[in-house]
Amino acid sequence: MNQFKHIFFFTCFFAGVSSCKVPEAETSQSKFIPSFACVGKRQITKRISVGKIRSGDYQLLLTYGEARKASEQRDIFQDANLGVQAAINGGFFSESSYELATWHSVGPLSGIPGHKNGIFRGDTSRPRSCLSWSTAGDFYFDRNQADSNHRLTSSNYQTLCAGPMVIKDGNSQQEQALCDEQFSSRCRNDGAAILSESKSLPRSGLCLTDQSELMLFHVSHGFLHCGLTIKDMTDWMLQEGCRDGMMLDGGASAQMILKQETEDLQTYHSPWMFHRKVPIWLFVSDRD
Question: Which of 98, 120, 201, 204 counts the highest number of beta carbons within 10 A?
Fold first, then answer.
């Protein structure tokens, strides 16, 4: 039985100070909150047994097509009756380009209008970390998408490239990954990033654990400029037992869909004015 965890806590953000307190009345009432306050921060994890993917109980799939918000994608999943257990936003994109999203999709996904299949490869000159998985449920993390090329061109694999890859073999490598994968221009002589400039934002990520679990991570909250820094996110993933892990598209793109005990799919994201439509979703569903 898959487990998920909700962690609620409150904080606020004003002029770069993240330790001030939000009045209790402001956190418990449905009323206007000043823009400097971060209210109702929510951290969510979802654990999926890799064994259940390998045995065929679950399938891990990518969908790429028309950009949609989490609520729109949830409705499509429900209408298609795909048995979706969880979904999370994928790699990077802009309004006119998907140059940072590199993936391979295996076969059509019936019931998802606008879904596109096949290989999509954009600008491969920028190194990005990738997660690949085979139809047999074997998983591979690559620090550079160039190392994934033989899987990207094989119909036996799906691949999602995003990054940075902040954990490798159970150790944090966030500083080096930020520079190696060109997420930061503030790099020391040894090639490591200056983490003090990392912003607190909504974030999404995924990892594999020593217990052969695929974990999905998401943090959302009331206002865009509050949340977790890259270091905070990495520490959280390490605390949950991640062996290899990478970040997904964050900020306004960070969104998650999760099946609850009530059988309903719930969406998690920042308020509507602070989250955007995304074209790439990674999701876990019951086997056809």
Answer: 204
